[in-house]
Amino acid sequence: MKAIEIMGLKKTFTSNFMLKKYNVLKDINISVEKGEIYGFLGPNGAGKTTTIKCMLGLISFDSGESFICGKNSRSLEERKKIGFLPEHPYFYDYLTAKELLCFSGMLFSIPVKKVKNKAKDLLKLVGLEGKEDLKLKKFSKGMIQRLGFAQALINDPEIVILDEPFSGVDPIGRKELRDLIISLKNSGKTVFFSSHILQDMEMIVDTVGIILEGEIIKQGKLSDLISHSVQYYEVVFKDVDESLLKSNNIGFKLKDNNYITKLKDFEKLNYIIEFIIMNHGKIVSVIPIKMSLEDIFLKEIKG
Amino acid sequence: MKSKLFIFVVVSFILAGVFQYDYDSHINYFSEKNIFVTLPKGKTLEILSFGFKNFVADMIFIWSIQFYSNYSLMNRFEYVEDIYNIITDLNPEYKAPYYVGSWIMALELNDYKMAIRLLQKASKNLNNEWDFDFESGYYAFKYLKDYKLAEKYYRKAAGKPGAPSFVKRWQAHTVYMEDNLTYAFKMWLEIERGAKNKLEKNSALNHLYQIKFEIDKNNLEKKVELFNQRFKKRPYNLEALKRKGILYIIPKDFNGDDYIYDFKTGKIKAKKVFRWKKFS
Amino acid sequence: MKIRAIALNTFKEATRNKIYYLLIFFGVFFVLSSKLVTLLTLGDKVKVLKDLGLASINFFSVLIAIFTGIDLVYKEIEKKTIYNILSKPVSRSCFIIGKFFGLALTLFVALISMVIIFFLFMLLFSGEFDVRILVYFILLYFELLIITSISLLFSSFSTPILSSVFTISLYLIGHVIWTFNEFKDKIVNPIIKTISYILYYILPNLEKFNIKNSIVVNSDLDSSMILGSICYAIFYISALLILTILIFNKREFK
To answer: CB of C122 within 8 A of CB of C53?
Structure first.
């Protein structure tokens, strides 16, 4: 059974004035396996948030289906299994962190006493210890984001849906957030998060879906997507006679006494390595330069 | 810096107040011309008050008190009846405007009929209150000298719950003033029987004595005149009337004493004379 | 439990807003300042005290009902805090009902604090404690609940300014509609007559809760009419809440 399965989701918005229709979601098909981290990638305005809102029943959709653990994701029962962090979360600024978590917990019908303990643990988890009784008015953006993360976990969800969790978070915070997401995965939860920032995604996701103008244009395991596209191998070596290289028609660049060679062919790689060793050179490194998510992304957009 | 600004604020307010004072001294809010642009009916105002009709009535009433006590305005009474009608339409059970309105109408404007109209509206709206009718009766009695009308109001007042006993005495007195002596006598008899204290009883007895005297006096003097016509001379005493068959019984006064007959003038006098007399 | 959580949170939000206290303060202020106004009047001063006191409590509690009702729902949508609620296993009807009870609690606390001050004030200056005025406050509370549900209805699909205009208009209409009671029978045209009958019964009739005018001048209370008014309020509020839920269910949170 898939954790999340969305099939043929379509959505049009009608503008209020001219009754003009906008196809926001043209055909969304997403499937997320249990226990994986799914990255939902796309530029701003591609329909990431709309897809999530459709899934959670915040907006209606025209056609298609959306399942969570095989059941309609819009039913209240299924929502008990979901933890959700909205984009740019804003919480009641008159509440304290503890009060907000208790409120969130009560919406899941969790007994107050249990919620209080859970809230303590979660605040510790997201690094907001000692801020329990501080009004949210005084929270910074990053702190709000962490708190939002905590409230998404209050019900111990099977599936955590995060909408742009990295936006507005400083580099240290991002590192912590990435660690948090990985720890969620390690505790057996499925994480679905959207982002337009590739670097964050590349480091942690198992599966990636790329959305562009309301369509999923590519979906697959990150390892598959990337291994298929090793662009070239970069071989760094030293202590080889320059003239020998030239005579054997090997192109190179010189950098800090190291020679750098770029090779597209896998067969030629063996030949080069053998050549260097036979000529008493020293290999510093051999790196397969893979296509980054960014490159894939750009390629898809252009192509 | 802050305290300086604060002083600035205070000074500004004071200056604004000075200008307001200056403005007030140039303008007359209650000007003689165009006192009112329009006068809505009470019902209209009731609708426009959106459920705050008591509040609106209070406000107009309070305004009217200030307005009608402004003696510099000569034509201020032009719409007095309309104003009090509006207030009392808005709040028919509010007693004070009826009193104050009728006082203004009667005592300032001397329009007693208008005052009675307002008081009668009160009597209609506050059905269990006797004093509006009593006051109406008083104005009719004292200023209009319409004893029939006054008697009507006193009777109404006397019939209402809680009316004090003096209302009935006033009514009896107006009946007497109407020269309906037998009816007045009957009324005073009732009052005498129902009297609760000595004062009431004595008062009733005095009135009874006086009225009986007046009735008997009229009667006797007529008989004397008849005697005079028949025998061309006045009777020497009242016994003579009985002897000649003109009178069967010689009436006595209320205390059972004989009346005093003056042979020379033919007039009858009572033994007791009370100091009170008819209002004039 | 969910409804209670939303209601309590609504109450918290309302009571942590300064406007709420400001309006209560003004209500109390005008109750107290009625003492000054009685200096200008002749005759029954207690009547004027009661009139002004009841009028100011009425006025300011209605303001609280209109503005907190509109503000709290709109803010929730505008600031997207509603996402946190509706993405959890909370149905939209649950949200609306929770909001309603939260507002009801807010109004109750506001009203009761003004009422207590009013009664203390009356006790101090006139020495009387008129229990029948309490009946008026109960009816006023039901009127406030109707106003709140109207503002809830409008703010479920409209902007705050439009909602306030609509709600205030309906409040005013609600206090003059009794004048159409006889008027509607006199219409000859059957279509217009039908329309005016429908409108007459659909629009809120709030004047029936307004016994403050008669209570001050000591006329008798008709208990069956009071009970009828309360039943009217309960059914009217239920209808409005269901309508609000129906509209809110269709609403998209873009």
So the answer is: yes
Whether residues A165 and A39 fall in one domain: yes
Number of domains in chain B: 2
The answer to whether the CB atoms of B96 and C55 lie below 8 A apart is: no
Using the predicted structure, report yes or no on whether residue B280 has a pLDDT greater than 50.
Answer: no
Q: What is the pLDDT of residues B68-120, one digit of tens each?
A: 877 776 677 777 888 888 888 888 888 888 888 888 888 888 888 888 888 88
Show which of B85, B106, B126 is a domain's final residue: B126
Number of domains within chain A: 2
* Structural domain includes residue B117: yes
Chains B and C: 3 or more CB pairs within 8 Å of each other: yes
Q: Which chains touch A (3 or more CB pairs under 8 A)?
A: C
DSSP secondary structure code for residue C208 in this structure: G
Q: Which pLDDT score is estimated for B279?
A: 45
pLDDT in tens, C1-36: 788 889 988 888 888 888 888 888 888 888 888 888
Give the distance between the most distant pair of CA atoms in chain A.
Answer: 79
Q: Does the pLDDT at position B251 exceed 50?
A: yes
Q: Rounded to the nearest 10 degrees, how much is the dihedral formed by the CA atoms of B97, B102, B107, B111?
A: 140
Distance from C-alpha of A166 to C-alpha of A201, rounded to nearest angstrom: 10
Instruction: Please give the biggest Cα pair distance in chain C.
Output: 63
Average confidence score pLDDT of chain C: 86
Of B126, B158, B193, the position where a domain reaches its end is B126
| Identity of residue B155 | R
- Pick the residue from chain C with its C-alpha nearest to A154: C88
Question: Which neighbouring-strand residues pair with A4?
Answer: A32, A68
A18-66 residue pLDDT tens: 677 778 888 888 888 888 999 888 888 888 888 888 888 888 888 888 8
Using the Cβ of A22 and the Cβ atoms of chain C, whether some distance falls under 8 Å is answered with no
DSSP for B176-235 reads HHTT-HHHHHHHHHHHHHH--SHHHHHHHHHHHHHHHHHHHHHHHHHHHHHHHHHHSS--
Is the predicted pLDDT of residue B277 greater than 60, yes or no?
no
B193 & B119 share domain: no
Phi, psi of A21 (to 5 degrees): -100, 140
User: Is residue B30 over pLDDT 60?
Assistant: no
What range defines the domain where residue B235 resides?
179-280
C122: Cβ contacts below 8 Å, ≥ 6 apart: C46, C49, C50, C53, C128, C129, C130
Query: Touching check for A16 and chain C: CB below 8 Å?
Result: no
Q: How many residue contacts between A and C have a Cβ separation below 8 Å? A: 74
pLDDT at position B91: 82
Q: Is the same domain home to A75 and A153?
A: yes
